């Protein structure tokens, strides 16, 4: 059912990438701006998120209230998020409203008011998001694990730090906006029902005169310690283990990804079976792949009662060691079946596709159709994955625990 | 784009209702079994959920492990939930796998093993769900509000009670299964890509010999007190206000629903504007419609700092009083725009449609196409909604607060 993906690079560097899904009545876009939290200044953790929050409080000819009313009038379902590399503005709508939605977001991205009188209201929203993480030990743990696995600034949390959020002023927000909102490095992914020529013209009119800006440099620091325990008063212990892996653009990516799928994809996967089903050690256990442009990681999580935490950790480390010995044909078959379903579901969602093609472009400089992804996955074999695993056994683990007491990190480390 | 909805009632009472979406490659079903938590025995709150959890641990020729592997092999994305009236089994998949998925779930629904040796594992899952609610004050509050707004057993929480969950044994589960899993009262909603004749034959083969069972009777008790404060050590106060409204099958339903949409739908709605935007009283405030078959309610929520809780409550009650005075044309226009978008998105999702048509059948004895729903919404006018509101002003409030101190419930009560 899928049609070819279209793209256009404007002279200021902005990339438009679009997938026609002409059988839909909806359209969606994902606008990636290179304003990720890796660019937060050292004592201003959370500034990218704060800037995004403020950009939504009036832009162009609209004040904050008019902005909300106009979006509601168009029936636009929007969301924003901040990752290490990007601030992302996403919206889904009736196809006929796509041009007007792009007009509104051109104001948000290029001409936000960043109004001083709303900075305290914006700060409260940021505090709320930070608190939501603090109240959720599992999420808190994974944030601390990512922070230690990657060298700074690659592992920073987008929520920022309480202290930094308290001190951020409107000039910080405005400086950050000027420094990081720029067309070179921005990618606009569109999917759904649209006319390509009209879309390209609209985007040209709205963004062609957006001036290219300097790319800020980032300095890499060292990563965190290999094991850290964070004291937390609870009878549960949260366990996180991370190890390095290849990024999405690496030719071996799908081999590495397939191995993680066998470890933790679906309920018949190894971690769930060994840790939860066979031993009843915990309620939740999983591993997931995370990729930046130039490096990646596998992040494992388990939450268990404190008295069974050591056993849980040992079993996970043993499973990671066993993964290096290879996977079996029927495990790979199940993975392929699950992924084939997931790809078809994604093909039916304009929001999911707009986000996928924008992210593809960031990582690869082009977008893959779902047909291409399916071929890559069909091409995986036990032999190819096992060859990869033999050369790249899980190891060099970073471990973080959160709970009443430290654990012993031993067996399974390669 | 929508096609007519098909249906068939089998002689044992089971209803199959199906919406063809032939442009999709996926299919989804929602199987409503009349095993809702209203049927939990008095000292066994949570038994419906527990029975559902146990039904997934092996059925027909499959043990618990085989069940999981077979679902993964078919790439089935499944979920279960328990409401007041139903236990619901939902699954989405590639269209070609629909017949095999139905086969698996026919075993779950008719021939579960309910294995004694897994009851402790099942109990842990139930505890975990209960704890998830206890850890989330906003959710906890809304559960307590619903319990007091509706006369028992209509307001019970599906998560049950700690004490009851501790004492449930395998015989309780088996009795409950025999009593509540039956074809009369069951509704199977299917949406997506399928062949109607083949589907009807498959369902007949799997379910036609499922014997009709007696319908258990329920005894209604009285509702809770009109105001209750629950002490909770926090500097936040959670506020919940409910008032009675008509159920989905009432001819006035869309008038009542439209009024609630003006109160709390989208970011430009009244509650968000008055409570959060203008006064900055709290981070989150909303109202939502809830409907059982024979009665409904509007449930309002706000979370605020304890020192501003009284003002938050007063402003919400004032907004409820003001609602009775009527809504304005531009508020209704915005609501219609938002809903039109939402309906189109729903039309693109087989999962959403399978669930909607099954629930429609429960409430109405037939399913509405999205085209019909759109017409009903187009037919709403300020005049019709205001006439309804004049005759049915919000009132007879039930209020629950959760936080460090009681509040004064006064103004706005009609």
Task: Provide keyphrases for this structure.
414 residues; homodimer
Short overview:
Chain A is built from 15 helices and 13 strands.
Number of strands of chain A: 13
Estimate the helix proportion of chain A, in percent: 40-55%
Largest β sheet strand count, sense and barrel closure of chain A? 6 strands, mixed
Oligomeric description of these chains: homodimer
Weakly predicted, low-confidence segments of chain A: none
Please list the strands of the largest sheet of chain A in the order they lie side by side.
1-2-8-3-7-6
What does this 3D model show about the protein?
Two copies of one chain form a homodimer. Chain A is of the alpha+beta class and 414 residues long. In chain A, helix 12 runs antiparallel to helix 14. Chain A is globular. The N and C termini of chain A lie far apart (45 Å). The model of chain A has no long low-confidence stretch (mean pLDDT 94). Chains A and B meet through helix 2, strand 7, helix 4 and helix 12 of A and helix 2, strand 7, helix 4 and helix 12 of B.
Note the topology.
Two copies of one chain form a homodimer.
Chain A: E1 6-9, E2 15-20, E3 26-33, H1 47-55, E4 58-59, E5 62-63, H2 64-73, E6 77-82, E7 87-94, H3 98-110, H4 119-134, H5 137-149, H6 162-167, H7 170-180, E8 187-192, H8 196-207, E9 227-231, E10 236-245, H9 253-263, H10 270-278, E11 282-291, E12 296-305, H11 309-323, H12 329-347, H13 350-364, H14 370-378, H15 382-391, E13 398-403
Parallel strand pairs in A: 2-8, 9-13
Antiparallel strand pairs in A: 1-2, 3-7, 3-8, 4-5, 6-7, 10-12, 10-13, 11-12
Helix pairs in contact in A: 1-4, 1-7, 3-8, 9-15, 10-11, 12-14
